[in-house]
Design a protein that fits this description.
Length: 232
């Protein structure tokens, strides 16, 4: 069996983490695009959400992750017990996650459900693949907000669709590969076709943002309805 080697080196990220909520038990943050959630094995990938936060909040741990290029809401536990309590809500699908995205092209339908199992693709690491045999169940809902045409810096007209995405499961790269399956990859997605449409080659980032997160505070029992406006 071949050993998978991760050769990715993250470029420096000057953007700061914005702390949206802080209490004795957890943090809600706005992660910038271009920052790893966790430091990698390669020492050149030391900078990350966790590395930065643990300097000021010793003992904090990530309950979940966002992809390197994805921006937006993350919940961070300030100790292991809180992590376990919130992670249980995630595992029971009691947490609602909402994302905003720009997709390449104009979607025909105003809303829909993508139900397609996802598996690792060792031959094309770090990509995932749709696989009915080996894949784990994965479901995502989408709703069109607007269809638009943007001019890029070279004057090329780009047909785009702004959507709200709601994953019902939490597979790696789920929204990215599900949107590719729709035939409308997320603009700027280097792994799943978001840089292939004419005029998209210089897109500065992955146009995917975690915009809302709803869960129950593990200590107070109060509903937490966090939101974070999209930068695009």
């Amino acid at each position: 069996m071949s050993v998978i080697v991760d050769t990715f080196i993250a470029p420096p990220c000057a953007a700061e983490i914005n702390i949206l909520h802080q209490d004795a038990h957890l943090l809600l943050i706005d992660k910038p695009s271009g920052l790893l959630s966790l430091s990698g094995k390669n020492p050149q990938n030391l900078d990350s959400v966790h590395y930065r936060l643990v300097q000021d909040f010793p003992g904090c741990t990530l309950v979940h992750r966002l992809d390197f290029g994805t921006s937006g809401l993350m919940v961070v536990a300030r100790d292991k017990a809180i992590n376990a309590a919130i992670a249980h809500q995630f595992s029971q699908r009691a947490v609602t996650k909402t994302y905003g995205a720009l997709l390449c092209g104009h979607l025909a339908d105003d809303e829909g459900l993508i139900d397609a199992p996802i598996a690792k693709d060792p031959a094309l690491f770090p990509r995932m693949k749709i696989c009915a045999v080996q894949g784990k169940p994965a479901r995502s809902r989408y709703r069109v907000v607007e269809r638009l045409v943007r001019q890029n810096e070279d004057g090329v007209s780009l047909p785009l669709t702004r959507v709200v995405l709601t994953p019902e499961t939490g597979r790696t790269h789920q929204l990215r590969i599900h949107c590719q399956l729709l035939g409308h990859p997320i603009l700027g997605c280097d792994l799943y076709g978001g840089l292939l449409l004419a005029g998209t080659e210089k897109t500065p980032r992955l146009m995917l943002h975690a915009s809302a997160l709803d869960f129950v505070h593990p200590v107070s029992g109060e509903p937490m309805a966090a939101s974070c406006a999209s930068p695009f």
